[in-house]
Structure formats: C-alpha cells, structure tokens
Amino acid sequence: MRAHIVIFLVILTGSLSAQSIQNRIVHNDPSTYRDLTSVHAGAGSMGFTELIGRKELSSNFLYLHTGTIAGKSGIGHHFHHDIEEMYVLLSGEAEFTINGRTSKIEAPAIVPCKMGDSHAIYNATDQPVQWLNFAVSTVKGRGGAFDLGDDRVGATLDPIPVFVSGKLDKALLKTERSPITGKGVSHRRILNPTVFTTDWNSVDHLTIPKGTKTNPYQLEGMEAVYYVINGSGTVTVDGKSGTFGKDDAFFGRVGEHITFNNTGNEEVELLAIEISASKKWNIKRPLKEPKAMVLEMDFVVEKKNAQAFEEMYYSIYVPAMIVQDGYLSSKLLRLYSPDEAKEIQAEPTTYNYQILISFETEQKRRNWVASDQHQIAWPAATALAKEFKWRGYFVMGDDEQ
C-alpha cells in the first residue's frame, strides 16, 4: 500500500510539475461567450462563459464566470443556499439588488452576495456592461439556486446602498501591509474573512508598477484566483513562468510560491481572490515556542488483558488526569491487526497500545506525575502491561479544530 501511495504521489507531483503554467492562464474573450436569455428569470439577454471551474482547485472554489449584460437585461432575483458569490462590474453601471433593496452601482466595483442573501442585477441603460462572478461553495462542487421570478425591472432605488459593496479605486491603495511585496506595489484588502460564511478568505486589489518584479510569496493554507484588470507581464509559480495580459485569469494552489513581473509598458492592476483550504481547521504559521507538550507511552498488553486495559483508560486514567492543572487531552490507541499492518507495510513492533497525554507545559505534566491521582492511575496501567516505555515531545504545530 505504501509503495502504491508513493507511486501515486510521484505521478501526481510529476503531472503538476510538468503542467505548463501558461495552460492555467485563460483569456476573457467575448467571441467565446454563449448567448443566454431569462437567466434566473431575468430580463433580456446576456453573454456568458466560464474562465475557471470547480475542478481546477482543491479548495471549495466553484467558478469564475464572466460575460456581458445587454442593455435592458439582467440576472433575476434568486437565492443560493450553498454558495457565496461576488459580482465584479468592469464597465458601465447596473442596478444591484440584495435582499430586496436596490441601488445603482458604477464600475469598477464589487458586490458580494453572502450565502442566503437574495440578489439580482439589472442593466437599465442601453449599453452593455461587462461583469465577472466569483463563487465559493460550502461543499466541493455543489451549486444550486432558487429563483424568485422577479426580474427587478423598474425597482425602486436607494440612493445609498444598504448592502456591502466596494469600489476598485486605485486612489485607495496603499503600500503598507501588502501580502505581495515589491518596489512601489500598492494594495488594498477590500473584503476580509469575516464577510464570508464559506471558506472564502479575502478579496484584494493591487497594482504593480512598470518594471517591478515582486518578491516571491507563498500561498500558506490558501489558494488564489487572479484577474488582470490592466497591464501585462509574467507570473512565476514554483519556478515555472507564463505570460499574462489584460483580461486574463489564472490561479495558484496551496503551498505554491508566486512571483509577478511587470514586463509591459503600463501598470499591472490585479484582483486577487483567496480561498482557505478550510476555515474550520486552525492552521497557523510555525511556532517559535511550543504551545504544549505530549507524552507518548507504548505498552505491550496481552490479549487477555486488552479489554481491561481499555476500560482502565476510561475508568481510572482519564478521570485522574482531567482534574490536573494544565491537562489538555489524551488518546488511547490500539495497534492495527497483523493483516492490516502488513497491508500498509507498517513497521513491525511488539507494542500494541499507546496512550498520548498532553499538558500545557512539561512542568505541569511533572506535577501530575507527583500527584496522588498519578500514584493510582500509573500502577493501574502498568499492572496490565508486560512492558512499557515512553518519550516526550514539544507541540510545535497542530491542526486542531
């Protein structure tokens, strides 16, 4: 089994490494748009295509759609129960509705549609508008919608939007605290993780001056989808490069190192969407100091004592530890059967049980060892074992929820 896993990983890694970064870069070409009508029971017609789909990334990113909404046309009022979207208006103006309230939004701008919020777009002008739509789902690949049969034509407008929106205004960009660094790089985080319910992490707007090559940055626990609003250059992903231009889209995967190089004649302007591998997992940067300790104790327990050993853990060992200052958690592990161990090519061992205990500090674990409760629990465990040993570890990282 281990050999099969290694071969699979080698094949997978080789496939990803061999994949040209240029193949990730897709151009937003209006000539490829399909004509659609009555989208979510909306008025008129629109052009539509998908630039990046649900299969491209390992996170719950669902799609990047794009197109044009013709004059006097729109996307009808509807809900999504499993996804969050964000519409980007690249040109023109449109009337956006969120939860039944409508306001005029002028490009360039973004409007997030949080999960469970009803939303719609209507282009009341005679000129087409260009749009993008990013989406992240709660479950990988799951979409779905519920239409309200309302095209929002002639809706009453609020002069000031009563929903979240953001302007893609370069005057608001700053050089401080940009995740992408380089001489003259400017950045603004328009939306942060608290806005979203899904694994959607953030929405960033940034510019890279002519002639600037950014410092490599790593997508730590994240994937990212980029859209080039303006400019041209190269993007390098783990040493492999591709060229991009205005209205191109591309993506980066978890752990990859990304570098941008503005090789064109004008400023590069990017929209960056980051998606967490999973918000529910507490994934942090490497620690400088241990956050806890773990003692790993191995036991050889004969079959006749196995049930009693497992019952002892719950009836004696755990109750004795949970009253100790600094106690965090423990686990009782039973070794795989010989057939299962052989199947996964496990290292041979005579130790068939393991208890893991975790305390805030090593000193607090030692206090537990000196306690009256330990004088009861430890003999109860060792009396049921033929042999035992232990080792201690400092906890320098975990993914506990």
UniProtKB/TrEMBL annotation:
<dbReference type="InterPro" id="IPR013096">
    <property type="entry name" value="Cupin_2"/>
</dbReference>
<protein>
    <submittedName>
        <fullName>Cupin domain-containing protein</fullName>
    </submittedName>
</protein>
<dbReference type="InterPro" id="IPR011008">
    <property type="entry name" value="Dimeric_a/b-barrel"/>
</dbReference>
<feature type="domain" description="Cupin type-2">
    <location>
        <begin position="206"/>
        <end position="273"/>
    </location>
</feature>
<keyword id="KW-0479">Metal-binding</keyword>
<dbReference type="InterPro" id="IPR014710">
    <property type="entry name" value="RmlC-like_jellyroll"/>
</dbReference>
<dbReference type="InterPro" id="IPR011051">
    <property type="entry name" value="RmlC_Cupin_sf"/>
</dbReference>
<dbReference type="Pfam" id="PF07883">
    <property type="entry name" value="Cupin_2"/>
</dbReference>
<dbReference type="InterPro" id="IPR051610">
    <property type="entry name" value="GPI/OXD"/>
</dbReference>
<feature type="domain" description="Cupin type-2">
    <location>
        <begin position="71"/>
        <end position="133"/>
    </location>
</feature>
